[in-house]
Amino acid sequence: MTKYLDMYVTHSKESLDDLNNVLLRLEKNPADPDLINECFRLAHTIKGVAATMAFKNTSDLAHVMESLMDAVRAGNLKINADLMDLLFSCVDNMNSMVDAVKDGRGEPDSLDLIDKIEEILLTVPKEGEAPAPKGAQKEEKAHKGEK
Fold it and tell me: Residues near 9 by Cβ (< 8 Å), separated by ≥ 6?
């Protein structure tokens, strides 16, 4: 393993451990703005480090997680049990991705998880917009020829 890959694995694992711990605290205090901001910051950091090392799949997953946390920070999405499960799934998947890279197996993807998050994000209002009506994301995907 190269020096940079070792640094990537170490930094990513530390950041993912920190993120998991912050999520555990957020689960008990879902309205705590400091915890929400910390989750956003850690996802942003993980995204940046993965992108720097050209690990696109990890970066893409961290990016959509960061977007979820940004929607929570803006008050457009509320923390609930389903969202917490999704956030923990992101951490678990990113840990698996880093382990695969460390073991020389190549970076797996998490397209199903990313799709699930993107569907949620489609329902979140953008600044100055009203929330999308139920079913609008399915209509938009159908229009684009997606499943």
Answer: 1, 98, 101, 102
Task: Tell me the Cα Rg of the chain.
Answer: 16
Instruction: Give the Cα separation of 93 and 57 in Å (integer).
Output: 10
Give the orientation angle of helix 3-28 with respect to helix 81-102, to 10 degrees: 170
Average pLDDT over residues 22-49: 98
Report the amino acid identity of residue 99: D
Full set of structural domains in the chain with CATH: 3-144 (1.20.120.160)
**Stated pTM of the model:** 0.85
Q: What would the pLDDT profile of 39-63 be if each residue is shown by its tens digit?
A: 999 999 999 999 999 999 999 999 9
Q: What pLDDT shows up at residue 125?
A: 85
Q: Which residue has the tokens 């009506």?
A: 133
| Rounded mean pLDDT, 17-43 | 98
List C-alpha distances in Å: 93 to 20, 76, 80, 103, 138: 12, 25, 20, 15, 25
